[in-house]
Amino acid sequence: MHRWNQRQLPILAFRALAVVALIASVLPALAARAADEATVRVFIFAGQSNMVGSDSKVRDIQRFPPFAGLEAPQENVRFWYCLGRENKTESEGWVPLAPVDDVVGPELSFAREVTRHTSDPVAIIKVAAGGTHLGGDWNPDDPIGFEMYPLALAQVRAALAKLDEQGVAYRIEGFMWHQGENDMFNEEYMANYGPNLKNFIASWRRDLEAPELRFYVGELCTKTIWGMDLRPRMYAISLGQREVTNNDPLAQYVPTSHVGVEIGGGVGLHYHYGTLGQLEHGVNYATAYLTNTGELPASPRPLEAWPYPAGSTIKLFVMAGHRNMEGERAFVQDLADLPGGESLRQDQPAIAFKYSLGGGYRVSDGWEPLGPAGYYDTFGPELSFAAALRANGEDSVAIAKFTHSGSQIIDWTPAGSEAPSRNLYPDFIAFVKEAVEELEAKGHRVELAGIFYHVGENDMSWSPFRREAPNRLMSIVNQSRIDLGRPELTWFVSQQPPTDDDSVNNIDVTAELKRVLHGDEHSVHVPVFDLPPQEKQLVIDTRGIVALGEELARAYLERR
H-type helices in 61-147, by residue range? Predict the structure, then answer.
């Protein structure tokens, strides 16, 4: 048997006391953590039709690989809902999260994204109705019409009371709000959207006794037809939203104008996000929330080694444009089914890649290896473009990409429009200059090989914008050469088949684009009218985006 000597006993006693003290300090923390992990995170979703999920269809989810499986119930997520105006659809209690009445709402992708990054239980309360106003229906002080504010407040209180009744601990984590389209049709509501939104937020915090409640205010989608013919009105609503989110540290403006929108008949642009847009809409809210909580892991794509010899000449290719240059419906998962597609999925460390996507929604961390970098697992024609260049002997290639899928050509013009916050030209020129300067700072000579611009798809669907497209384009081309100090800078302008509809077919935009571009010795018109068959007009799918990149490379190689 071991014998302790007298000198060891005080030391042992001290150590024992230290262990007891350590346990005493750790146990409360562990208990608090366990309790916190059992606390349900409650989120409120509210607004009008683009919060409901109008013009979406559950069966379409399978068309978009990043969101596969969201048609199935999420048994681990509680859901309480009241949807609609005259005829309301209600859950009548807490149920597992699932699509309602064949409609896809942003809560589906939001919940999956949040639960991927936290083990805490999640609950969603949703109250939304199409065609409702903040100035009237959602007015906390004097609700009229469908009286959405008192309805929503009653629903939220009932849902929380049920959790109390069940002995479920919870905390309200965020209020997701997407609304404003209908207020722009009422002059008073439009002019007062900012003050009304401020009052709306303050009323919720007061009535829920949650003074620190965070609000996530979704941007109105400018990619729809309303983004063109109602541009000044949508801008006015955005000013009101920005006024609030810029001044309230617990209110955040969430960009959504870059997400997909429903492509229908006629001119093809609806007023609603539709299935893809709703799924992306939800991811936007989740990204904003998880960024605030610090739970969104970093996903660095470092360029481990600089790929170019010291002092060498680099050919810089600038890619720019709208939804199809961004790659709205080109999904990385679909590349597996294309010949050579797997190689396009891999990062290319021999090509430095710099990008700003969605008007700055996603920006590279300096220069990264070329590879799929789009949000929502998307990619653009730059992948096949670079592969075609390298297959034809082009070395020392770098690519800089600047896109905004929610823009129209007018947003790229130096003159801009009556919605100045949507003007992209200054940022675009600054982006190109920065790319050149960064390469030069590394000791390289930079040859700006060309700007590759895919002409605005949405512009083809509304007569005034379709008519002005050629002149607006040339104003960008001409001014860019001045501002970049490169009078012979080559522009390669690709054009897909324009919208085919009687309401716009009297404007031969193809002939006009060809005329102005052929009249400029440093511009190249690249018609891409023989892309693989597409399911929808305006948007180009994975196979088509790969073909677009190859066509752009061919145009460059023929001219070099």
Answer: 106-117
- List 216's β-bridge partners, or say none: 176, 252
Quick check: 182 pLDDT over 80?
A: yes
CB atoms within 10 A of CB 75: 9
Residue 36: per-residue pLDDT: 54
Provide the whole-model pTM.
0.92
Beta partners for residue 317, in sequence order: 399, 450
Reported as a single tens digit per residue, the pLDDT across 455-465 is 999 999 999 99
pLDDT at 487 over 70: yes
Q: Pull the structure tokens for residue 162.
A: 């049920």
Q: How far apart are the first and last CA of the chain?
A: 91
Query: What contacts 133, CB < 8 A, 6 or more positions away?
Result: 139, 145, 182, 183, 186, 189
Mean pLDDT value of segment 161-173: 98
3-class state of residue 169 by DSSP: coil
Residue 528: both structure tokens together: 């891409």
Residue 401 identity: K
User: Which domains does the chain show, CATH number per domain?
Assistant: 34-293 (3.40.50.1110), 313-559 (3.40.50.1110)
Please, what is the angle between helix 463-483 and helix 509-518, to 10°? Answer: 20
**Cβ-based neighbour number of residue 35 at 10 Å:** 10
User: Length of the chain, please?
Assistant: 560
Across the chain, mean pLDDT equals 93
37 Cβ neighbours under 8 A, 6+ residues apart: 119, 120
What ranges make up the beta strands (E) of 279-336? Answer: 313-321
Q: Which residues pair with 329 in a beta bridge?
A: 541
For residues 351-361, one letter each, b for 16 or more C-beta atoms within 10 angstroms of the residue's C-beta and e for the rest, the string is: bbbbbbbbbeb
